[in-house]
What does this fold into?
Amino acid sequence: MKTIHSHAGDIQIIYESGDFLVINKPAGLIVHKATGNKSKALIDYILESYPEIKKVGEDKSRPGIVHRLDKDASGLMIIARNNQAFVAIKQQFKKRTIYKEYLALVHGQIIKDEGKIIFPLTRSKSGHKMAALPASNRAKKKLSNRDEGNIRARLKAKKALSLFTVEKKWPHFSLVSVNIKTGRTHQIRAHFAAYGHALVGDDLYGTNKNKLKNKKMSLGRIFLVAKKLKFKDREGNTQEFQIDLPSDLKKIIDTLKK
It folds into this structure.
């Protein structure tokens, strides 16, 4: 497997064709540069090995990028290598026909074995994170209502749907597989925080109690991995990719099993 070295760890090239790359992004690496950010981004490292991607896409600051993955998360991403592939893959994201599955460890034991979170999302007043808009205080206390979100709030914010299955439970943690039907900024992080189960390692959305636990675990990243991708290539063939948990996250799970 080809790897590209970055300051945050190795970028693994899981698959490459003339149309696209499928990569495994390490945690700690931004996908593309934001205003005022001087550190190298994922796409900078990609361009060093695949310079043709520089001309791909609609935005020169993020060539070939068809979707995002948070800096402190890791996992699978698609990078388009030509404009025809860029348009075709972006169209699949727009139509929500691409299957994306994530694995996350969250604080607290989720009672349900599976469920859905449809809280609409909007930018918070500070602008640094997303605000999930569940129902009234009364609905927050009633789990069945919390699943459905708030109709009035939905009209003001962007719709967001996350489906989850609990893979494993411990007294104070739950391991969940999450399939997002919409690709909102920080969707999984904001959704699970509003649901009462913030992601392990996520100090931005976690409560003060969560932050103390995060500090004790010394993970240094968010426990969130884009573990599975399924989409169609330009010939109409299904392309499916899946990765294992990285070693740092495996250690956390092994600790919980003891």
